[in-house]
Amino acid sequence: KAGVTQTPRYLIKTRGQQVTLSCSPISGHRSVSWYQQTPGQGLQFLFEYFSETQRNKGNFPGRFSGRQFSNSRSEMNVSTLELGDSALYLCASSPISGGYNEQFFGPGTRLTVL
Amino acid sequence: GIQVEQSPPDLILQEGANSTLRCNFSDSVNNLQWFHQNPWGQLINLFYIPSGTKQNGRLSATTVATERYSLLYISSSQTTDSGVYFCAVLNSGGGADGLTFGKGTHLIIQP
Fold first, then answer.
1. CB contacts, 8 Å: A5 with chain B
2. How close, in Å, is residue A17 to chain B by CA atoms?
3. Tens of pLDDT, residues B32-52
4. What is the pLDDT of residue B8?
5. What's the pLDDT tens digit per position in A51-71?
6. What value does the mean pLDDT of chain B take?
7. CB contact at 8 A, B86 and B72
8. In 3-state terms, what secondary structure has residue A50?
9. What is the helix, strand, coil percentage profile of chain B, to 5?
10. Are A72 and A4 spatial neighbours (Cβ–Cβ below 8 Å)?
């Protein structure tokens, strides 16, 4: 079974621009979660989508948004980029939402904001 | 929210040595996972272990949920074991915040 895939793997943007990242979960998995990793804050939860609905949301500003499609693929969007948005963005998939449920991570998208 | 503390933060060992990494958490959990982050940033699943003991080759893990800690054991370390090890939990009090990660243990195995 193929693992979680993320595209693109690397991105360079400038302040004020917006960016869209994509995540394809493991086949059959319906939950996709997004995380941000920075040297200062570590790994932090952004949001989770299940059955095309946002189920949970972390403590991030509204510039961070996402969506999920009927095939469970998910995108996250960051608008009006700031230097502090430079980070590794990881997505994780799991069969269902929440509870006793192992999550599997993709390789990440490394975003640099100049 | 739930707090996750990992220790030690850094660990340097010689090849062949054994090591124990600890993860303490502040509340009851539905999910506890151990990951190894490779040099390219991907989180590799090691164990899904909300309770009990599991073994996979040279690695094993134990979670004592009632005492709110988990241990990851690495035996006969190899240089390829180097990297950052993360513990992550999902609070059974709702899980509204996704997985909460510790700050990791940075392990260096010297030849």
1. none
2. 24
3. 999 999 888 999 999 999 999
4. 98
5. 999 988 999 999 999 999 999
6. 94
7. no
8. strand
9. 5, 60, 35
10. no
Q: B56 is written with which tokens?
A: 């996979």
The answer to whether B8 and B105 have CB atoms below 8 angstroms apart is yes
Share of chain B above pLDDT 70, in %: 95
Pick among B6, B37, B43 to test the A interface (most A CBs inside 10 A): B43
Locus of tokens 């869209």 = A20
Does pLDDT of B80 surpass 70? yes
CA distance A97 to A83: 32
Collect all residues from A whose CB is shorter than 8 A from any CB in B.
Answer: 33, 35, 37, 42-48, 56, 58, 88, 90, 92, 98-108, 110
CB A55 within 8 A of CB A49: yes
* Interface contact flag, A42 B48, Cβ < 8 Å: no
pLDDT tier for residue B17 given thresholds of 50, 70 and 90: very high
Spatial CA neighbour of B43 closest among B107, B1, B104: B104
Rounded to whole angstroms, the Cα distance separating A2 from A21 reads 19
